[in-house]
Design a protein that fits this description.
mainly alpha; Arc Repressor Mutant, subunit A; two-stranded antiparallel sheet; 6 helices
């Protein structure tokens, strides 16, 4: 199987695994997770990493901000640049989601953990 086929399969399997525990709200948790993981990246760079349309992202982040899960701030260096910040409520909701997924998936051996980390690093370098 070629690399592209494997990446598509991994993406589809991960998405299906996560959807089972989100009642269809997977994008919400992706945005919260990316806001935490990439806390120093601009909104436009996070949109690029997520691979979604700006309009969809804007609607979702406005809703997450209204729910008190997320704050959208202007960067100190360049006020035109916006940055996402999780609120305490957002941190708690994201952690609850992580716990639910970890319980569902179960323990992962160290070799699998390393392989996942390597894959993440590889994909981040390509985006």
């Amino acid at each position: 199987m070629k690399t592209a086929q494997k990446i598509l399969e991994i993406e589809a399997l991960c998405e299906n695994l996560l959807k089972k525990k989100t009642d269809g709200g997977l994008l919400k948790f992706k945005v919260l997770a990316f806001a935490k993981i990439y806390s120093n990246l601009s909104v436009s760079m996070i949109i690029e990493k997520l691979g979604i349309k700006k309009s969809n992202f804007a609607l979702l982040t406005a809703e997450l901000e209204k729910e008190g899960l997320l704050k959208i701030e202007h960067a100190e260096i360049d006020r035109r640049c916006r940055i996402l910040r999780l609120t305490e409520k957002g941190e708690n909701e994201l952690q609850s989601f992580y716990d639910k997924i970890d319980d569902y998936v179960g323990p992962v051996d160290i070799d699998t953990e390393r392989s996942i980390d390597i894959l993440i690093n590889y994909l981040n370098k390509r985006i």
